[in-house]
Amino acid sequence: MSAPFSPVELLIVVIARLLEGCRHVVTGASSPIPGAGALLARELSGGALRVNVLGATRNNSFTNGGVELFDLAAQGRIDAFFLGGGQIDGQANINLVGAGPYPELEVRWPGSFGSAYLYFLVPRVILFREEHTRRVMVPRVDFISAPGVSASNVHRPGGPYKMVTGLGLFAFDRARSRFCLESVHPGHSVQDIVDNTGFDFDRPEDVAATPPPEPEVLRLLRRRVRSEIADAYPRFAASLPG
Amino acid sequence: MPAAPLCELPALAAMIPDGAKLAVPSENSGVAMAATRELIRRGVRRLHLVCVPVSGLQADIMIGAGLVSTIETSAVTLAEFGPAPRFTAALREKSVRILESTCPAIHAALQAAQKGIPFTPLRGLIGSDVLTHRPDWKVVDNPFQAADPIVVLPALQPDIALFHAPLADRYGNVFIGRWRELLTLAHAARQTLVTAERITERNLLEDVERSPGVIPALYVNSIAEARHGAWPLRFGVEYPADERTIESYVAAARTDAGFRGWLETWLAHDSVQALA
User: Is B99 part of the contact surface with chain A (CB cutoff 8 Å)?
Assistant: First the structure.
């Protein structure tokens, strides 16, 4: 019997689980759910995991300015990072610039941020997008902010590792350049995911259900993580169950 | 060595000419909003705005007010307050040209300017449309290792850097703490203009605890005192965002007419009381 939880709390917990064994995780701009997930993973790691939340003052140890994140990534000192996308396609290409043929965009989004670099260099890049619809999960992105895979001669120690959406959890196989569905969140079905995904993906015959948050994990999230994430994301923190 | 002169805000804003390549920091460090208001009052035009490496409310207001002809940035967003409405509209209407970038490229290109070298290599980017749409960036072979293509970027030297700092002294030294992208920015730019919450009589370089976080006067051309100079944005640990004022902006700036109305109120507003 699990305690009631919100869909956002489930996503935070799913993300925290993906960070097990990491030594250093950074979360970037406009990433409140990944930020909360990373801080939760830190709590669960007993302090073994270092977390840096961009935009935070407390949960941010950088002392060398904006460039430090990127220097750390290039040196292999970051194990996991999060990227999103207004569009994501089946080869894990991501688009943070806009929908429509560039530059004649029909919809403009903020821009590529550090994706065109970090996607290449951080070993576990977790794609996170709450909205899982055919508008987001497209056959081919209109603009490649950062490619999912690269030619073999391109220096690329990093890349897509998993994708977390509001409907389920996927793994990405870099050799085959395909997503594989790993689990479906409570309240949704494999068919929901197929119906809402504009690209083809692999799936086992029986797809697992995403396990709900363990009660003690949920308690930790509500007692500790909620106040920690408020440093960088006060409005998001206020929206979380207390 | 002559000290960087202290001046009033309008005089500081007057040092930014039409057509300047003006670099400003992200909302994670100090955004000179009070100075931005002065720039709009003055009606500077045709700026090439370089966001280091992203911007938000500041760029959106400057674009809406018609100050910007080119924006070079990795992103413009109001973060927790949503998309940047005037930025989005200007790109749709093609009234502003955008040079798409990625955060580390802006940092690296400024570092090249800081070192006085013509270009710098940067990892990543190959296979992205960011690279495709930047004809000024090139892919070269690593001269030290075969079969290792790498992107090179030209140095980025802003004409002027403009930002807000917590503290400056009357000798022209500016305390930035650990926001060291501001140090790189001041090193890279031809001129650096600063607003500061407070001006102290004490030489900051003589303070051993603070001096590692100080931009020396050597790089600083002018400083104006501006209490709450980042308002309505948050400013480090000093003050949080004025949510009511930013929300009023978001609601108004959906349309050009709404934006004009908000701007008029903001320009007439000389306190830091929330705008309704």
Answer: no
